[in-house]
Design brief:
979 residues; alpha/beta; Beta-Lactamase; 6 domains; seven-stranded mixed β-sheet; five-stranded antiparallel β-sheet; 30 helices; elongated
Length: 979
């Protein structure tokens, strides 16, 4: 109040004045007011008026004062109290009712709103008492004034009470209401609902355009003007209004309302009464419901099953298009109870009754029933309906779906028929699964062993290749028929056996390069008859049978012939040279059931090769292990155990399946299933005539990572007259290919270390040097050159170990073919493959065993007069051992089995027995024990591939020679035993 100099304005005024705010707190009073109330400034300023001058709550005095002040604050118009009785405390503390005449003038603040009321009050108690004491019968100006003042005061009180009562009802009305007056539509009165709708802003006293400026251009002002001008009411439903909240954010509201004109006694429109309801929640809910229904119907139309809805009484009011498609009825024909015509006659009454019970109980519905579909048949459906209720629990509608379960019902019926045999079928299935799992385990085991065998064959072939080249080069300058030349030939024979052993390992591991072609298996068996009869011997009858309409199959002919020979030799050994062997070829079709229970078999048409003998057969345990490499039921030294594994590997690599059978007492049966081919069989290739090694003058790029092999092949190539460029891996080879060096052919190993592979080197070479021949060489392709077990088209492969003659022929074939000259037929890589797999283990005469690397040379000691008996079942090895034993003057005799060795010991005796552990008729240990019985002083030297022999401690004079060994190691062991 610092801007008002109230003291200077009202100091000299004799009439009492006091200033209060909206809380009725007294902010200022003049001296006249303090005098008439008997208070000091300190007792008044800051105090609430009704607390400093209390009256009984809700008394006439309290009501009159509060209502007058409220009218002044609310309306902004001065309010008068002509006469108001009001108690006041005297100086002595007594409470005395005094009469006052007061006026309340509103004072607005800087914002234009009423902020204060200035009360002018006059004490008229003396005047009131004077008039009252004159008597009620006296009539005069003073008495009339008093009477009128009392009437006005009472009427004001009554009017205030009525107004307050009306305002209370007005505020508590369920809808919003407001009264506007004049052409400006100034707000006269608004209830709380209207104030809430408008964001609790100040409205009273303001015109609508000033109070609600955001409604401009929304049409409401124009409607008010129209009602005011025409005097006709206007009502709207769901009218949208955009209002601005205090923070500036806009809000969208919807209302149902009416503008009702207000008239004076003459009928003139003086104002407008606005009454309505905020329906924002209702409108938004209806819109959300409409959107939800649209989403529901869109989703329902996209569902594969029919969807429908029903009214609370169960009458269908909507069905998806899928419903009409399934039933074949026209749109709209199934509304209400129309759906009942779809029910099966046997179930109609029951289903309808169940639906009526569901509606009555207000619960979800579920039933399996038959409905007529478009083709006139009945199909089983699962019908479900869910009840949709509002918050009060009233049913809004039903939502249902129909799911076709006809196939399931048929399956359930079939399953019910099969339940009686369930246990039997479970047992059969368990057996089937056990068989499948066993086959899978066997397959995994064979795969692991095959991978190992293939890796061993790779390294073994590299070693054999180095030995082969070195032996051939060494024999070049030796005289034909000399002792040295004979030893080289014996070593080459042993290398050949090692190569065959590696070939068998590769065949088992399914890494043997195959060259399959369409073959008439019956014709191939017939062509193989001479070699089969030769291998079987005179004591075994051979029967060959082939179906007259036998299909062709796609196999490598040489590998197939080798597999036949292995099976025949195995059967010969099982029958001990006496019996009957039957080889039969026929057509079979393997069904899905067979393929499912045999993991390596495929359904379809096959050519079946059956090899059966009349031997003792095989036990179940032997059958389970028969295709494991190196497993054999024969005595030591009677085979490598690679015969059947080789056949198994060849069969699976050819896409076939092998099965072993052995009916009790009926011998063994091997069945091989090879996939049928519709391609015509090709004639057998003519035999290759070797004309000796022929070299040339071309330049060859040799790429080989093994230093020994590279050096050996380099010498062979130089010996054949070729110029050679060397590279130790594909990376170095690439550098040479990209250089200006002249190259006529690339000879590269398949498996090498380095960044690049041999395949990538070859591809790059053909790109930069089109037409350049590339010859791959490897002892183990590891699938690098194979596709489904077969050589990829166009790939030229030379399998290790290869001879100088084979290398020379292959080089000329490729170089002559590249020059446009007729290419010679390639040498057969299978010429050495006709081996039963039961020969002796390979033996090297080089003398470079693990123990000999550390051996020191001993002075030669004469063994003249010593008698040495060599017992070895392999004739070549036996001859070689005899020659080595005789180099120091010893007398040497030979035996190929244990019985002959014992006979020689009984007849001639011996100082030293050199015996192999694996003999065809008995073990080397048994021969040694018999020799000691004959001659306790005899020295025993065991030759074996083992590095330890625990039985050695049972002999007084015995030693161990670990294969392979050479002459030096042999004599060192003999000298040690003699000493």
């Amino acid at each position: 109040m610092s801007d008002l100099d109230l003291e200077s304005v009202f100091a000299a005024v004799s009439s009492p004045y006091v200033l209060v705010d909206r809380d009725l707190r007294m902010l200022w009073a003049n001296q006249a007011y303090m005098t008439v109330t008997g208070r000091t400034r300190e007792q008044l300023i800051g105090r609430i008026m009704t607390e400093e001058f209390p009256a009984e709550p809700d008394s006439v005095s309290d009501q009159m004062l509060r209502q007058s002040l409220a009218r002044a604050f609310d309306t902004g118009i001065t309010d008068h109290l002509p006469l108001i009785p009001y108690p006041i405390q005297n100086a002595d503390g007594t409470l005395v009712t005094r009469y006052w005449s007061a006026s309340h003038a509103p004072i607005r603040g800087a914002d234009g709103k009423v902020a204060y009321v200035l009360q002018n009050t006059n004490d008229v108690t003396d005047l009131y008492d004077e008039i009252k004491s004159a008597g009620s019968g006296e009539v005069g100006p003073k008495s009339d004034l008093l009477r009128r003042a009392e009437e006005v005061s009472i009427r004001n009180l009554e009017l205030g009470n009525a107004t307050q009562f009306f305002q209370t009802i007005f505020d508590q009305a369920p809808g919003f209401m407001a009264v506007t007056t004049g052409q400006e539509h100034a707000f006269k009165i608004v209830n709380e609902a209207y104030s809430d709708l408008c964001g609790q802003r100040e409205l009273v006293g303001l015109g609508v355009r000033e109070a609600l400026p955001e409604l401009a251009d929304q049409g409401f002002f124009e409607l008010l003007d129209k009602v005011y001008e025409t005097g006709k009411p206007i009502g709207l439903n769901g009218a949208e209004a955009i209002l601005t909240e205090r923070g500036g954010a806009q809000t969208r509201v919807y209302a149902d309302f009416v503008y009702q004109p207000l008239r004076d006694r003459t009928g003139k429109v003086i104002g407008i009464f606005t009454q309505g309801h905020d329906v924002t929640s209702k409108v938004l809910a209806e819109r959300a419901l409409a959107e939800a229904e649209e989403r529901f119907r869109t989703m329902a139309q996209s569902m594969p099953s029919p969807v429908w809805t029903a009214l609370p009484d169960g009458q269908l009011d909507w069905l998806s298009d899928r419903f009409y498609e399934v039933t074949g009825h026209a749109q709209g024909t199934l509304f209400g109870d129309g759906w009942r015509q779809l029910l099966h006659p046997d179930e109609s009454a029951e289903v309808i009754a169940a639906w009526d019970r569901t509606i009555a109980a207000t619960r979800d519905f579920e039933a399996e029933l038959r409905l007529k579909v478009a083709d006139g048949s009945f199909r089983w459906h699962l019908v479900r309906a869910a009840v949709v209720q509002d918050p009060s629990g009233r049913i809004v509608r039903w939502v249902g779906t129909n799911t076709d379960i006809h196939d399931r019902k048929l399956a359930e019926a079939a399953l019910a028929d099969l339940n009686a045999t369930l246990e039997e079928r479970v047992q059969a299935r368990n057996k089937e699964l056990e068989a499948v799992h066993a086959a899978l385990r066997q397959s995994q085991k064979m795969e692991a062993i095959g991978t190992l065998a293939g890796g061993v064959a790779h390294d073994f072939n590299n070693l054999l290749q180095a030995i082969t080249g070195s032996l051939e080069l060494a024999s070049k300058d030796m005289a034909e028929g000399s002792a040295e030349h004979r030893r080289i030939e014996q070593a080459m024979t042993a290398v050949g056996r090692g190569a065959r052993l590696a070939s068998q390992l590769l065949s088992f591991s399914r890494r043997q390069p195959l060259s399959p072609r369409p073959v008439d298996l019956g014709a191939l068996i017939e062509e193989s008859q001479p070699i089969l009869r030769s291998a079987l011997g005179a004591g075994i009858e051979l029967r060959l049978e082939s179906a007259p309409d036998l299909w062709n199959t796609l196999v490598d002919p040489a590998s197939m012939e080798n597999a036949l020979l292995n099976l025949a030799v195995n059967a010969r050994d099982a029958m001990e040279g006496m019996g009957r062997l039957t080889i039969e070829a026929s057509n079979v079709r393997l069904d899905e059931e067979y393929a499912r229970t045999h993991t390596d078999a495929a359904a379809g048409e096959h050519v079946m090769l059956t090899v059966s003998d009349t031997g003792p057969g095989m036990s179940a345990d032997v059958i389970e292990r028969a295709i494991e490499p190196f497993f054999s039921t024969k005595s030591d030294g009677r085979g490598t155990g690679l015969g059947l594994p080789m056949v198994y590997g060849f069969t699976t690599q050819s896409g076939g399946h092998m099965r072993l059978e052995s009916p009790p007492g009926s011998g063994a049966v091997v069945r091989i299933y090879l996939p049928r081919t519709v391609r015509p069989a090709l004639e057998s290739a003519p035999a290759v005539i070797r004309t000796g090694a022929r070299g040339g003058h071309e330049t060859i790029l040799l790429v080989e990572d093994d230093e020994i092999v590279r050096a050996t092949v380099l010498s062979q190539l130089h010996d054949l007259g070729y110029r050679v460029l060397e590279a130790q891996d594909a990376d170095e080879g690439l550098v040479i290919v990209d250089s200006d060096a002249h190259i006529d052919l690339i000879l590269t190993d398949v498996v090498m270390p380095g960044r690049l592979t041999s395949r990538e080197l070859a591809a790059h070479a053909l790109k930069v040097r089109p037409g350049l021949p590339v010859l791959f060489s490897s002892g183990y392709t590891r699938d690098a050159m194979l596709h489904d077990g077969r050589l990829e088209e166009g790939v030229q492969l030379l399998s290790k170990p290869y001879s100088r003659e084979t290398l020379a022929a292959k080089l000329r074939e490729m170089l002559d073919g590249a020059d446009g000259a007729p290419a010679a037929s390639p040498p057969s890589d299978h010429s050495a493959g006709r081996e039963s797999g039961n020969g002796a283990a390979p033996w090297s005469p080089t003398g470079k065993g693990p123990s000999e690397d550390q051996a020191q040379a001993n002075p030669e000691e004469s063994q003249s007069g010593m008698r040495i008996l060599v017992c070895e079942d392999d004739a070549l090895i036996c001859l070689d051992l005899a020659e080595m034993s005789a180099t120091r003057g010893a007398k040497v005799e030979m035996a190929n089995n244990g019985r002959d060795a014992i006979r020689i010991l009984d007849r001639d005796g011996a100082d030293l027995l050199l015996v192999d552990l694996g003999l065809p008729d008995m073990s080397g240990l048994e021969v040694a024990q018999r020799a000691v019985e004959i001659n306790p002083d005899i020295a025993i030297l065991f030759a074996t591939g083992q590095h330890d022999l625990p039985e050695l401690s049972g002999f007084a004079r015995a030693g161990l020679l670990t294969k392979p060994f050479g002459e030096k190691m042999l004599h060192r062991q003999i000298d040690a035993l003699l000493r």
